[in-house]
Amino acid sequence: MKIQVRDLEFGYTKEKILKGIELSILPGEHVSIIGPNGAGKSTLIKCMDGLLKPQKGDIKIDGRCIRGMRREQIAKKIGYVPQSSASLFMLKVFDMVLLGRRPHTTWKSSEKDKKQVLNALRLLNIEHLAMKNFNEISGGQQQKVIVARAIAQETEMLLLDEATSNLDIRHQLEVMDIVRRLVDELGISAVMIVHDLNIAARYSDKIIMMHQGEIAAAGTPEEVLTEENISSVYGVEICIEAIKDKPYVVPLKAKYA
Amino acid sequence: MIQENIASHLKQKSDHESILIEYRKNNVKKILLITVLAAAMILFSLFAITIGPVDMTLKDAYQVIAHKILPHWVDAPEVHIERTVWLVRVPRLLTGLLVGFSLAVAGAVMQPVLRNPMASPFTLGISSGAGFGAALAIIFGKSIGNGSYYIVANAFCFSLFTSLIILLLSKKKGATPQMMILIGIALSHLFTAGTTVMQYFAESWATAEVVFWMVGSLSKGTWGTLKYIFPVVLLCVPFLIIKSWDLNSIGAGDDAAKSLGINVERTRIVLMVVASLITSTTICFTGTIGFIGLVAPHITRLMTGGDNRFVVPISGLVGALLLSVSDIAAMNIISPVVIPIGVMTSFMGVPLFIYLIVKMRRGLH
Predict the structure, then answer these.
(1) Lower CB density within 10 Å: C or N end of chain B?
(2) Contact, B19 vs A127, CB < 8 A?
(3) DSSP A133
């Protein structure tokens, strides 16, 4: 699936959070979005899933404008993992993941749906949590459950909003591995907001660096993760080393004006 | 190597099967609970029609029912017994069951739809609206309807009017659940104030009658009123039960629900309209009855967990039982004095509710 964003502009009030965003993501691409807090990363992802309505510009899924699509149609194409999820009511993990089948089923879940749930749980290695209450497992485990829900949704594109931010390094790498595998084996595309620049460099084909609502740089990890880019966008002093074929960011100190 | 693969494949298969078995077991437990509650409801109904101030034997009471079902096979009972059972006890019982069921289902739907554990037809001002409408009819004789249902028509219209205001105001600026609840609470205070002012200036008999209406009573439940309540419940409740799976998604957040393919704004409004409609239809006949709509869903969640596919129908059964048991208790505890049913549901429901919350330590999940 191909998604194209053209001249996107969005603001909750008059103040624009996103300005002149242009990007396109091709099938089988793994893209990381990086940038400082408040740069508009989550807002961009929400626009791409049609959760927010941009004031200007358009977003096309396989050439079709997202504005004219019903929620159910979008949900069959794009899976979304929000930054944080709490359920108001005690739901079993199994039932939480089963919600991912909603776009494909009307109200009664079939055996096939249950099978998809089990596969998604297995993929994330959390089968043992299936019958636990979602609200009673750890934050990191909850993250994985929500990723599993998006996988059970069987979409051609995954949008992940800091899906790994609550996880320790082991679980972080596990989730990154799984998303990478889905991209490589099934040819889906994945767009993830990542805070750890080195993890983004290691796993992504492309990196989009955002700054104050605009795209500051985009391209391969080598092209984007340069000393100039990072120091001007984040206001930090760093140096870049090449370790195991990828750029590696070594933090030095914060810059003060 | 191949053997290892087969072994791991078999292990995966058996893992999956054991999860599915546990999942099914869990759901079977809930279906069992539905069966038990339904059976309790039937047994209680059979008990309820045998007690009351008119003296009769068990056989007399059941003879009436049998005669109504199979008129050619069972002899007609004595006229005064037939009238007591068939024209008073049975419709009152059915009214209690239907009203309890409806209010509980309405609450069970409103709580996830507004993502607030305190939402119910009462916190939203729907019942204050009904009370205001009824007071207007009783005190000033002004009503939208006329004839024997003039109080009912007014109560119905004003309660529906309240929910319409909430929906219209929140639709203008995007329907956020917090807005709806705040508007509902504000309206509830406004209508209560309006009712109080009317009572303050009204004659004492009228004030008393308003109070009597507000505390609620099932005694107005007749075959005539059931004719109105039953079709609405029959249409609305199955609809809400079918939609209950979407409540699970909405409970996880608006963005999550949208990304799962649900048109959240529209679903929220449709469900609110339907839940308000059954609330208005039932309370306009009975007066504002306790807080069944708030408590029954929570009692249910404490028993079954939060899967709304089960919470909605089970709440209905819990509400029906709670209300009809309260009614029988209200009539018989200090007979012949009848304690108002609204008071009785609170007396029975609150201790049960607090006990469960404290015992489960789960709060409102």
Answers:
(1) N
(2) yes
(3) B
Per domain, the residue ranges of chain B are 55-360
- 3-class DSSP assignment, residue A17: coil
Summarised one tens digit per residue, pLDDT across range B268-316 is 889 988 998 999 899 888 888 867 888 899 999 988 989 999 999 999 9
As beta bridge partners, residue A161 has A193
Interface test with B, best of A51, A71, A80, A89 (most B CBs within 10 A): A89
| B80 in reach of chain A (CB within 8 A) | no
Angle at B64 between CA B61 and CA B70, to 5 degrees: 140
Min distance A73 CA to chain B CA atoms (Å):
7
What φ, ψ does residue A40 adopt, rounded to 5°? Answer: 105, 15
- Nearest neighbour of B259 by CB, restricted to A75, A121, A127: A75
- C-alpha B209/C-alpha A91 separation (Å) is 46
Place of tokens 């050439």: A63
Residue with the two structure tokens 């899933």: A49
* A-proximal residues of B, 119-178, CB under 8 Å: none
Contact B94, B226 (CB under 8 A): yes
Q: Return the closest-CA partner of residue A41 out of A26, A21, A57, A60.
A: A21
Backbone angles phi, psi at A21, to 5 degrees: -80, 130
Of B101, B112, B95, B99, nearest in space to B272 by CA: B112
Quote the ipTM score. 0.91
Residue of A nearest to B118 (CA): A88
Residue the block writes with tokens 């029609």 = B49
CATH class of the domain whose range is A3-85+155-254: alpha beta
CB B209 within 8 A of CB B82: no
Shortest CA distance from B26: residue in chain A: A131
pLDDT at position B65 is 87
Return d(Cα B184, Cα A223) in angstroms, integer: 55
Query: Within chain A, which residues score under 50 in pLDDT?
Result: none
B260/A153 Cβ within 8 A: yes
Whole-angstrom Cα distance, residue B299 to residue B96?
A: 19
Q: SS3 of A31, please?
A: strand
Task: Measure the CA–CA gap between A73 and A70, rounded to whole angstroms.
Answer: 5
Q: Token pair of A84, please?
A: 């944080």
Measure in Å the smallest separation between the Cα of B239 and chain A Cα atoms. Answer: 12
Supply B338's token pair.
Answer: 């009848």
Q: Which candidate, A36, A42, A49, A44, places its Cα nearest to that of A9? A: A44
Annotate B137-158 with three-state secondary structure. Answer: HHHHCCCCCCHHHHHHHHHHHH
| Paired strand residues for A30 | A190
Q: Is residue A219 a contact partner of residue A206, using CB atoms and an 8 Å limit? A: yes
> CATH classification of B55-360 is 2.60.260.20, yes or no?
no
pLDDT 10s digits, B4-56: 667 677 777 778 888 899 999 989 999 999 999 999 999 999 999 888 878 78
A90:B20 CB<8 A = no
Spatial separation of the C-alpha atoms in residues A157 and B358, rounded to whole Å? 45
The pLDDT of residue B2 is 64
CA dist A203 → A24, A39, A183, B106, B125 (Å): 19, 22, 11, 49, 54
